[in-house]
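TA notes, week 10

Several of you asked for a full example with nothing omitted. So below is the full record: structure tokens for the whole chain, then the designed sequence directly under it. When grading your own attempts, check the secondary structure regions first.
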């Protein structure tokens, strides 16, 4: 049966620090992003898209407000928090009757920087204070399960209301993981060499480029992490499609003579 409010739900997933050259849909590498490739084949693949800044905080502030950096001013020095008077996409959709939630693996995308404005439910990975009784508190880092959190939130909202779900996935961010299986790491490099690598070559790259072999290892590890991020996209899509049960998830018009895909659960 059609829901009483048939407006499409919206899912916005950011694969943090994923370069277009690491996405196999663009042709520069094979097999890294099968889930994203399938979406690109059925929908729209942009070949000219530019971030407003080279780092997380101002880019997300622009993404969630539609404003250039000189207007929201997050990341330009001074307080690194979104001004309260700025209206976010989540606030607009919530005013329109959408349920809204944001789950982020990146600490920079959250309440500490006021990027949760408009989201009725928001959570990020980050430090947590653990009660130690008379000894006070111990701050520990807790990784948020963004897929599990999304599932739990979706299970708790009304089926009749459309929703806006924002998720940030951080797998492709350095330091890169050494995985048991990674076809993008050169076969000539053994496990000992990988473990001896500098985990943060970006911190010394201004002094001198690392040797070509080291760069090849770093790129291979990075592509393995991009593949892991794409797997989370697949998991999130499965959760959302199970939850929407026929409600439109993404709708679009037409581009020229080619009809764009309408996704549904």
């Amino acid at each position: 049966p059609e829901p009483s409010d048939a407006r499409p739900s919206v899912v916005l997933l950011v694969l943090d620090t994923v370069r277009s050259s690491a996405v196999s849909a663009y042709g520069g590498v094979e097999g890294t992003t099968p889930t994203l490739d399938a979406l690109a084949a059925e929908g729209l693949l942009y070949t000219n898209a530019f971030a407003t800044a080279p780092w997380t905080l101002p880019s997300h502030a622009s993404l969630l407000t539609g404003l250039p950096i000189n207007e929201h001013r997050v990341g330009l020095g001074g307080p690194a928090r979104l001004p309260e008077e700025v209206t976010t996409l989540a606030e607009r959709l919530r005013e329109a009757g959408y349920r809204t939630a944001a789950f982020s693996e990146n600490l920079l995308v959250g309440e500490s920087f006021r990027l949760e404005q408009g989201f009725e439910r928001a959570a990020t990975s980050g430090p947590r204070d653990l009660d130690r009784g008379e000894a006070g508190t111990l701050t520990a880092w807790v990784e948020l399960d963004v897929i599990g959190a999304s599932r739990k939130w979706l299970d708790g909202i009304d089926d009749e209301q459309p929703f806006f779900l924002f998720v940030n996935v951080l797998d492709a961010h350095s330091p890169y993981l050494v995985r048991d299986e990674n076809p993008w790491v050169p076969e000539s490099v053994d496990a000992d060499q990988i473990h001896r690598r500098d985990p943060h070559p970006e911190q010394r790259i201004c002094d001198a480029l690392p040797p070509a072999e080291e760069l090849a290892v770093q790129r291979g590890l990075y592509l393995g992490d991009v593949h892991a991020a794409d797997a989370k996209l697949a998991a999130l899509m499965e959760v959302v499609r199970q939850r929407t049960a026929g409600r439109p998830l993404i709708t679009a018009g037409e581009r020229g003579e080619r009809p764009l895909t309408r996704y549904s659960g």
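Confidence is low (pLDDT under 50) at residues 251-265. Use that as a sanity check on your answer.
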